Amino acid sequence: MNPYQKKRRWKFFLLIFAILIGIASVFYTDSFVKKMEREEADQFHLWVKIQERAMFLYDNDDYRVVVETVRENTKTPVIMVDSSGVISSFFGLDSTKTNYPIADTKLTYDSVYFVRQLRQMKAQHPPDEMNIFGKKFKAYYRDSFVLTQLRYFPYIQMTVIFLFLLTAYAAFSSARKDEQDHVWVGLAKETAHQLGTPISSLMAWTELMKSKFDAEDDPLIAEMENDIKRLEIIADRFSKIGSKPILEDHTVYIVISDFIRYFKVRTSDKVKFSISGDEQVRALLNVPLFDWVTENLLKNAANAIENEGSISINIIENLAKEQVFIDVTDTGKGIPRSKFDAVFQPGYTTRKRGWGLGLSLTKRIVENYHSGEIFVKESEIGRGTTFRIILKSSLRYEPTTA
Q1: Could you give the CA distance from residue 133 to residue 51 in angstroms, rounded to a whole number?
Q2: What is the pTM of this model?
């Protein structure tokens, strides 16, 4: 199992664990809320019975204390209405408001407030019937402020936990990315430094061979020199990692064609190469780095072709968005749709001896250094794969006017 699959599995387990914690929290809070609902309902029913008998109980000093205690400890807001639906009294609501106009300036007449409160109470709980001195009343109540808070507490808790996890994930991902960038840069520059000495030696040996064996025009020596130049380019590529590369205006078709000419003679004759599309479209490129992108895509395409096959490159210009599309298509074994993103992760590979760094490095070069995009456009198992690169065109077009 590669590191990317392990990381995905751990993320999946942690996500499931977080969901289970959230569900357990919601169920526990819900059971607690239902228990409080029953207690508040019992308290309300007791309040109604006390209210019905209040006038009689006030005649007894011992019961007067009980009545006042029950009234003062009622946490649920209550509204009483008469048989015609008119609000007659209320308890536990805003003490600075009143439902009828009075001369006391300390109180605010706000009938709309009580109508709104009564509507909420009717929507939450059925009323209790009351009979006071032969007159019929209905008492409504709504949940207390504490109970209302408890209803929303698990969802607020889950939101806070989610935001915390999201922030922590973003912070750790950023720190990990910075750490990976430092490793990439250090490894690349050290590789470039290590390549310098043997390349210089190889150049000297080829010059010695040409002079000693009078082989100035020997085709084998010429190919060796081509490979040495290629090593110089590779060392130059590594040295550019971590520093801002210089982008220059180039014809995309020519850059890719030049590299294909070098690459195809070093690949199996069973793999056929072709390039098509717009031959004039231009883009800002760093040629050594972009050749690296092309090389990684062509190598992956060639490795995906088990027997005979073809690799085609099509260059398209999107005039409306001023972009260049480069499609690299092979007739290899294909990529499962679930792996379209995974193939660009460091360490992901289907080869036994591969390191899984080629496409990851390709993505970095395209996105970080050329401000472009690269993705798997389409793939079908057993039929082949198409990678698409999107670059900004260096050509600008002004709209024509009639």
Answers
A1: 12
A2: 0.53
The CATH class, in words, for 248-392 is alpha beta
Instruction: State how far the Cα of 76 lies from the Cα of 42, in Å rounded to an integer.
Output: 11
List the chain domain ranges.
Answer: 3-143, 149-241, 248-392
Give the other-Cβ count within 10 Å of 161's Cβ. 14
CB 388 within 8 A of CB 324: no
**What was the pLDDT predicted at 275?**
95
Joined tokens for residue 199: 């390349």
d(C-alpha 96, C-alpha 198), whole Å? 90
Sign for the pseudo-dihedral over CA of 86, 88, 91, 97: positive
Strand order in the sheet with 135-141: 87-91, 78-82, 135-141, 128-132
Contacts of 39 (CB under 8 A, 6+ apart): none
Q: How confident is the model at residue 400 (pLDDT cuts 50, 70, 90)?
A: low
| Contact residues for 317 (Cβ-Cβ < 8 A; gap 6+) | 278, 281, 323, 324, 325, 393, 395
pLDDT at position 1 over 60: no
Q: Which residues contact 367 (CB under 8 A, 6 or more apart)?
A: 373, 374
- CA distance linking residue 71 with residue 91, whole number of Å: 8
- Give the SS3 label for residue 314: strand
Beta strands 87-91; 78-82: pairing state: antiparallel
DSSP string for 99-135: SS--S-TTSEE-HHHHHHHHHHHHHHS--EEEEETTE
* 218 Ramachandran zone, left/alpha/beta (phi>0; psi -120 to 50): beta
